[in-house]
């Protein structure tokens, strides 16, 4: 009997179910007798022995469903070595559940933090396979994470909807896009939605340059300007502050500015005299059904994960390199983020079509 544990960890995204289905279908199709245990609510389920033994039918009809049938939770990596509120050692508890259930392998569907924990468990001697999840696309070592393309669709749709209303008014519109500390989602949605200005954390902005870009559009007879702003966008001035100073500044302004877009909007209306409106699609970007790209990617990643399990190749993270699904060691990815390279052709091409990054 091959016993496989599975969990989904961190923020949810589209195609979590599709990825689990890819793993499960491939395992059930093998010549092995397979039992899959689904841990509930991410690593919590592994810590507190909250799980259910899955049936093959659980993995049917879920290719197109959003969210995760197992539930998820955030269990920050930096707190993994701290005992829980009752003094329980979390890492030891997870190892104990794994051993008690006589698992051969644990499959972790997660982003950066979750894969760091997966690597920790692997170093602690468990057999672990990681599958690359997140709408942020910031997992180091993979060209693409599942969930990202579906989130691009939603963020792009938000920009598309703003376009029609923007064209009716002489206003500046800001659409704030998720992505945590990186700009992938904003950059792709901004390109796809035809944003005029794209602000991402990797390219700190100068508010005066943004105002100049808006004025230039006005001078060209354009009635409106659309900015796609990453939730992690940062001014050159703030980028020069220490972490502590930045935190202090943001805390002081928290009532006035719930997020960076409101601060940018406020300063821009003072600088340019134009009306500014802010739209934050927020968690809608993680919601709904996975798009066809993600369904296919999830199925491929899941199938490769199953192949690794059947070949007893553990401690691996399944990744996409170019058009090929392959794998790297969990330790190669752990603790690193994949940022947008400001010198990449992607950024250059955006600049070539006239998109301003607010930096020059
Ligand atoms: O990592 C996915 C993500 O949606 C980020 O883009 C965002 O910064 C964060 O999660 C939001 O987290 P939460 O759902 O915990 O508010």
TrEMBL record:
E.C. numbers: 2.7.1.11
Binding site for substrate: 134-136, 171, 178-180, 231, 277, 283-286
Subcellular localization: Cytoplasm
InterPro entries: ATP_PFK, ATP_PFK_prok-type, Phosphofructokinase_CS, Phosphofructokinase_dom, Phosphofructokinase_III, PKF_sf
Key word Cell division present: no
Single Gene Ontology MF annotation: AMP binding
Site (Important for substrate specificity): 113
Job description of the protein: Catalyzes the phosphorylation of D-fructose 6-phosphate to fructose 1,6-bisphosphate by ATP, the first committing step of glycolysis.
Family assignment from sequence similarity: Belongs to the phosphofructokinase type A (PFKA) family. Mixed-substrate PFK group III subfamily.
HAMAP family noted in UniProt: Phosphofructokinase_III
Oligomeric form and interacting partners: Homodimer or homotetramer.
Listed name of the protein: ATP-dependent 6-phosphofructokinase
